[in-house]
Protein 1
Amino acid sequence: MSARRGAAGTAMAAAAFALAGCLSPEMTAAPTPPPQTAPAAAPAPPERTEPALRDSEIARYYRRVEASRRADGLMRTDGGGADTPFTPSMVVENFIRIALYDEYVMIGGRPVARETPAALRRWENPVRMRLEFGESVPETMRRQDRALVGDYAARLGELTGHPVSLVGERGNFHVLVLSEDERRRIGPRMRQLVPGVDDDTVRLVETMPRSTFCLVLAFSRAGTDVYTDAIAVIRAEHPDLTRTACYHEELAQGLGLPNDSSQARPSIFNDRQEFALLTPHDELLLQLLYDPRLRPGMRAAQARPIVRRIVDELMGAES
């Protein structure tokens, strides 16, 4: 995207992003003022909101999609097994493809599939994930998802060795759980969370099609490959497993794994949607991403021999 000026006078431009039935852009942001905490929205009465959310036309559509995928043997939750073996060489190639390539580019303000080499990007400051629910989201779902995301954030922190946690305020990784109507009006809130975010990025969220189940945007200060902020958008209409799958993929991608690969298996970073939850293969990718021997800004040629040495240590030197 072209650079624009936000209300605070900060310029922002899109760097790159990935899309996979879920969408994962990365953005470039100028320094932002201290995070603003949104006033807590009073939970709407479940007897009014829960049936409305569950019985909406789009919720019924996503239930049908999930049922169809599961009937086809997709959205597995077993993490893989004897039918999905992977070797150190496969992990090396999958990491290069997923961490060091972008799946999409922005052309005319819209995402266009065009795999492009990219630099390694990740966070240096602690990642403070903060859940924010639209008023339509019932309290039962809020409690369930807070517990899920809290546990998952802790798991991501253990895997990466980088501080990752769920916080109640002053987050820098904002996870928005929104109904269709709430998402279409989210622009002002996005501009509060990341001042200077450009109009194309806001439009990308507000107009995302049904084929985009969820998305994450990771932001870095202009001229660097270090993330400083992120926004994930999760559709509140999703049934439980699809919503959980969105949390697993988007929160992991927002740490610095922006691409998908048809060769990665067992993996959530694969457009086939064979796996719904983070797999042992994906855990290795996260360990690699935050190994101190790799640095933000590295390209594939520089990173590959280092990645190979790390994978050999983690898995043994078999090919």
Note: The longest strand covers residues 226-235.
Protein 2
Amino acid sequence: MDSAKYLVGLVGPEVLEAAEKDLFHPVRLDLDCCGALEIRYDFFDESEWVNLSKRVRSIAPDKLQIGTIRLKRDGGKFADTRAIERLKLWETILGADQVPEWLDLERDCLNDFKALNDMARPKGVSLLISEHNFVRIPNEIELEAFAGDVKRVGAQGLKIAAMSNSDNDCDRLYKFAKKFSKKFQMFAAFGMGETGRVSRLWSLKEGCNLTYGSIGRSEAPGQIDVSIMDRALDQFESMNSQIEILAFLNQF
């Protein structure tokens, strides 16, 4: 497992264009807060995809990149009916001079894993398998089955973001992280929604090394601005409970 803890900020057209046009635009401060950037290819016109990694690298050369083509059913903008087309699009992206270090593939598209991995591996690109549940947090058996699926195909990263419906709902995700996080290079497990907000930070105490925040407009329920998360992480060693983290977040 990577010992660093990565705060991931989402990069869409507004963020990228603002940073490119103005060296002193406030969005650049948000980019500086992040250890990694998620390039949301599904937010851009497909004609721009091949050059996106290079463009992001030019404004944030020291940031790890995660490339994602998120389907609508998983909270993205890429049509579910076009899922089969993504392999060809990934091939084009991976053929560019500069490519993300990681690609994110949804669990329900694991049938594409081998073909995508065969294209990504020669470029030194790793794969992260993600699952998004906008209704509930899966039970322990379901979570273990997810980890088993990801290990079976040989992916190096796992991410689960699931809707929290009560104050203690995320405890299952913490237990999951403690048991499985060390089996992967990258691991994220946090809750969405209001009662899931604190888990975006506390999950890093429970074994995860990957968490996600917003740059500008929030794109997921309960997402926190990266500048606030970065400030929390600066004080992370002195925060010993979820209540302390929640009290910090409530200041904003």
Note: Residues 6-250 form a domain with the TIM Barrel fold (CATH 3.20.20.70).
Protein 3
Amino acid sequence: MELDLVEISPTAKPPVCKIVDYQKFLFDEKKKLKKQKANASKVVVKEIRFTPNTDDHDLNFKFDHAKKFLEGGAKVKAYVFFKGRNIIFKDKGQILLLQFVEKLKDYGKLEQMPKLEGKRMIIFISPLKK
């Protein structure tokens, strides 16, 4: 009949086996894996950029965007970009990012404290679980 003995669950006592067509069994397993991957949630990261001299109105405007992103389930990567001699205002950038996080505390939580990478000071904010 051209069927094979396939071990389904080797850890069970006694092991579970099935008599099936092995190629069809492999095809079905591949199909199941593909379906699981398609249903898996993908993490979306949205970016918001600031400069050390960002004003309050601009901060509020960007806050509204970040709030929408977090409510939609996306992570937010906020960073302060230091251009030229602005790198001397590191403390100003850090204060700006911490203010931003403080405003967003009802919508998301801070994953890591502000960290300087090259000319950028970066933070990640993940949405709160519903």
Note: The helical segments are 22-39, 56-71, 90-103.
